[in-house]
Amino acid sequence: xxxxxxxxxxxxxxxxxxxxxxxYLDNAATTQKPQAVIDAISQYYLHDNANVHRGVYSxxxxxxxxxxxxxxxxxxxxxxxxxxxxxxxxxxxxxxxxVAQTYGEQxxxxxxxxxxxxxxxxxxxxxxxxxxxxxxxxxxxxxLTSTGELDWASAQQQITDRTKIVAVAHCSNVLGVTCPIQxxxxxxxxxxxxxxxxxxxxxxxxxxxxxTLDADFYAFSGHKLLGPTGVGVLYGKLALLQTLxxxxxxxxxxxxxxxxxxxxxxxxxxxxxxxxxxSGVIGLGAALTYIQQLGFAAIQTQERQLTAQLLNGxxxxxxxxxxGPQQVAQHGPVVAFNVDGIHPHDVATGLDLAGVAVRAGxxxxxxxxxxxxxxxxxxxxxQFYNSAADIARFLAALQAVxxxxxx
Length: 407
What we know:
Oligomer: single chain
Strand content: 15-25%
Mean pLDDT: 97
Number of strands: 17
Structural class: alpha/beta
C-alpha cells in the first residue's frame, strides 16, 4: 500500500489540531471519510435527491436504484445468501435493539437465559439486560482469561439448554481481541439458541462471511467503515426474519392498509419504516467500493505493522500498563492502556495538545472496566490510513506527557 496516496484520499488528515499535524488514533470510535464517500453524498444531493420506493418519475427511480444497489453490495460484502436478509438501520446500536425488540420479545419466556460476554459494548449488553428484566429471564456472562480473551470453559458452562440468545462482539472495542464466532455459534446452536454478533469493530479490518460464521444476526455501522454516520446494517437469516413482526410501523413498510387491517411489504422493506437515510446508504456504498478496491490483504498488512509498532512501543514504557493480549499476533488494531499515576483524561488532554487524538474513558464498556479493576483507560486505535510517523508522534507525545506530570 502506498500510504502517502491513501492518506491523500482523506482530506481531514491534512488538517491541524491545536497547531499540530492531526494524528488521528480514535478510529474505533469513528473512521475518517475518503473523498470518494464525500463526493458520493454530495452527488446524491446535487443531482439525484428524491425519495425512494415511491415516485414513478425518473429522478425517484434513479435514487431508488442507487439505494437498492447498495443493498446488493452489502450482501456481497458480508457474503449474505440473499439480498432480502440485509436491511438498513441507523447504527449498530439500532440494529441490536431491533433484534431484542423483535426476536427477543417474541421468543423469550420467564426462566430463559441470555448469554453475553464480559467484553461487550453497552450496545450489546443493555438491550439484553433490559429484555431479561422485562421477561424475567436470566442474563449470564462468559468470563475472560487472564490475557483478556474469551474463556472457552466459561462459555461451555454458561451456554445451556435454557439459553435462547448468545450475544457477542466479533472484536472488542477495548482489548482488541477477536472472539471465536464460528465456534460460539456451533455451541449456541447445539443448545437451541441463536447467536447475535456485534460486528462494529470487525468489518473494517477483516473479511466477514456471515454464512461461514453461521451468525443468526450480524450488525454493524457505516461510520466505523469509512462511511457516514447515521446508517447501520442488520443481517438476519431469512428464515428467522420471516417469523418476526416489524419493530416500527408507518410509510415504506406496507403493501396495503385499511381501517381494520395492514398488510406488510415483503422483506426487507417491511423492516425499513419511513424515509431512510438515503444519502447515508449511498455513502456507505462508496465506502465499500473504496475498501474493496484496496483489498483486505493490503489493509491487514498495513494495520498489523501499525499495531505492532503501537503495542511494542507502549510495552517499552515500564510505567505503562497495557490491557489485553501482549502479543501482536493476538491483538487487533485497538490498544487500551494506562500510565501509572496519571489520570487517563490527563493523558488524553496532554496528547491532544500535541495534535494526537485518542479516547479516554470507559469506552461504553463499564462492566469490562470492573473486570480490569480500573475506572477508565486510554485507547489508541489505528486504521490503514495511519502511518508509522503517526505512531512515532504518539509515542513521543506520550513520553512528553509522562515527563510533564512526573517531574
